[in-house]
Amino acid sequence: MKIEQIYTGCLAQGAYYVISGNEAIVIDPLRETKPYTERAKADNVKIKYIFETHFHADFVSGHVDLAKETGAAIVFGPNAHPDFDFYAAKDGEELSFGNAKIRVLHTPGHTLESTCYLLIDADGKEQCLFSGDTLFIGDVGRPDLAQKAASMTQDELAGLLYDSLRNKIMTLSDDLVIYPAHGAGSACGKNMSKETHDTLGNQKQNNYALRQDMTREAFILEVTDGLLPPPNYFAQNVALNKKGYDSIDVVMKRGLQPLSALEFTTLASDALILDTRSASAFSEGFIPGSIFIGLEGQFAPWVGALIPDVAQKILLVTETGKEQETVQRLARVGYDQVIGYLAGGFETWKGEFDTVKRFTAEEFVNGNNKDAVSIDVRKPGEYSSAHLPEVSNVPLDFINDQMDAFPRGKKLTLFCAGGYRSMIAASILKSRGFQEVTDVIGGFNAIAKTGVTQVQASCKNA
After folding, report:
1. In this structure, how many other beta carbons lie within 10 angstroms of the beta carbon of residue 231?
2. Which of 12, 39, 186, 323 is least surrounded, with the fewest CB atoms within 10 Å of its CB?
3. Per the domain annotation, does 456 fall within a domain?
4. Residue 228 domain-assigned (yes or no)
């Protein structure tokens, strides 16, 4: 038997490909199908099942396309009612492939249909648990995402999650390997480890939510404490995963249309221009009105957090050769309406362009921006742990809802931890008419290295 975790860092997402005999299964696949079909072809096996742990909110799964290409059955646990053909597995049911089998463990709490899959080998030994968003390494799934669909409060869902963990998972063997759907960086939890798998025994010792002496009431309080609002695209991705979507081949063909500068300009009046180059390249010159979200960062999650509608038409400005990767990574989070890219990249643009002035950390602390309002766009937790005095916090995550926090008619200097998020914020402000916006190269990390006084974990502006 072969178990392979296919981990995608940008989304902090783990998909799984498992072989037994001449058959394979796939758990929680990403949108593109080639990683799975090419593996199956190379291994000379047939993909029999595609197991979904729940309707994912932070990415569009590849289950629909993969099923069409391979003939594999899509499997959901109880309480799932998608709009396409699928196999509705019962709690405790076992499904065989090759010489192994999967036991279905319905574990509601993160969502009502959340289900874990226990892998049992040919000798009857329980090998591992594909835990989806029910159990992470160091954390558990947030219970607030499915409130509307479930007609339940987050506390009620958290209570279900407590029961699922105690009655279905914590009773399993300590040497069982836990393979979750996400790791550190995902918005589906709040305390995830950078490790992408662990034993259940270690998690019982180290995961705050699995403490043996934890009461149901204490669990509900701790799991729901400090949850930030989910990104706007989450509900739209759930709908796509439940209802279906355009074929990835159609999406790629539509998006990979090279456009001349004239064609690009003609289409721009009805589309958002997304520039995915580096922060430094963008600062030196960009098409007015463009939004910067660099491909080298957590690209797809930030697109999802900041572009409210997945049906938004998008035109791309990318580094030459990065067009296909960009369209694919957008499709992973449901942004399927890319209608083309600027052929040859920004170098072919002959029209007006804009820039973002940047300070080094040393220039910043030496007062080069003394007549500007400085704003920290890091997350609230980062800000509360260490920040500069007299600098307010407007997290990038919520910038669309907090534009009034940026004073118009003033010079603004932005920084984040390293310079990626602040350039995104600068681009959004520029697109909305703010003229004098500057950025600090290297962000708070570089500023801290200059020795400037920091305010540690104060209540001010936290």
Report:
1. 21
2. 39
3. no
4. yes
Beta-sheet strand order (sheet of 94-97): 94-97, 100-106, 115-120, 126-132, 177-180, 198-199
Q: Confidence band (pLDDT; 50, 70, 90) for 10?
A: confident
Domain with 411 in it: 357-449
How many beta carbons lie within 10 A of that of residue 150, not counting itself?
Answer: 18
Q: Which of 5, 3, 47, 48 is nearest to 30 (CA)?
A: 5
Q: Are 408 and 434 in contact (CB under 8 A)?
A: yes
- The model's pLDDT over 78-114, given as tens digits with 9 standing for 90+, comes to 999 999 999 999 999 999 999 999 999 999 999 999 9
Beta-ladder partners of 129: 118, 178
Listed residue (180, 237, 65, 165) closest to 50, CA to CA: 65
Q: Is residue 75 part of a domain?
A: yes
The DSSP secondary-structure symbol of 221 reads H
pLDDT band at 460 (very low <50, low <70, confident <90, very high): very low
Residue 106: inside a domain, yes or no? Answer: yes
- Find tokens 């594909």 and name the residue: 130
Considering the domain architecture, whether residues 32 and 105 belong to the same structural domain is answered as yes
pLDDT for 129 beyond 70: yes
